[in-house]
Structures are given as structure tokens and as C-alpha cells.
Write the C-alpha cells for this entry.
Amino acid sequence: NWDEFPVHDSSAIAYAHNPNLFGTEHGRLSCILDGAQRGRTVFVPGTSGNHQVCLSVDSSSMLDDYFSHVTAAYR
């Protein structure tokens, strides 16, 4: 009874289109390779890391932007 869907791919495109809608942080990503949490991604914030991850999004603005572009062909 899940009435939602993941938006990972479309969120990546939205970030490429307008990164100002997202809150990001630099740090280091790694993946646990063994044990019960195998496959879990771990993020450690810090200036020495070479990864940038999105931690927040202005979802209302992102959806407004998305719908305006998707429906533009029908105007």
C-alpha cells in the first residue's frame, strides 16, 4: 500500500537544470562491503571529501519547475 514513487533520476535532472533548488554538502561517500549493513552508503561531511551530495530540496519549487517544463509543449 505504497502511494509514492522514487524520483532519483528526475531529481538528478532537476539538479542539473537548477542546482539552486537543492542544499548540498561536501564530504566523503563510502559503501559498507561486509556484514548486516552490506551495500549501505555512508556519508561523512567534511571539506577533505571529494563528493558533493544533496541533502535537501525545495520540493514545491522543484515540482513547479518540472510541471512548467513538461506541460510547455502543450501550450
User: Anything to note?
Assistant: The two ends are 35 Å apart (CA to CA).
